[in-house]
């Protein structure tokens, strides 16, 4: 008689964080191999591109899962900066590709980068790959796909949560870029619930970036933000940190609360 069992991979990593840490960086090394970087630089043989793309997707999704169980250290990404740069440049090269597969791939890359940025201890090191300027360039583009807009604003919020990230964004004039983005994208879609989470992210990012003397509170907008945050805080009876839409919110330190 055949016996079947289910293995919970997540629980394995949760129970052995040292093993999770080791596997995470082994996968990073695989992504850094020549076959992967050649694909990401759009130099692969067309016959193998789809296979490499599928492998990349599996690896990125696995790394996101593992990263949830790891306590990162400040300099953990020092050897991974080149491949992170290649991943970001791949997104940049393919922003306006319309195929579903490639759009999904871009989102998976940005979600993976978002997982790294979500760990604020890694932000100062990630700034070395100059992804702030890339993200700001993206949201300045008028025809940027919605999914990339949303992922980009999420990244900006998580960058702004870190003191050095906030400083880098202000040096890059992020506030003015965000204001222009609000006028061009968010204001005309005020009644569109599809943009609800993006408006929340925009408001929180702007609050983190603004100097106190520059802050001007829009009571109506702030009310909507607080309503959404209140919905999120329902879950804090079980957790001191919640993650939703790739946003991490430390309730006790949040500028709105």
UniProtKB/TrEMBL annotation:
InterPro entries: ARM-like, ARM-type_fold. The chain crosses the membrane at residues 23-40. Keywords: Membrane, Transmembrane, Transmembrane helix. This is Uncharacterized protein. It comes from Rotaria magnacalcarata.
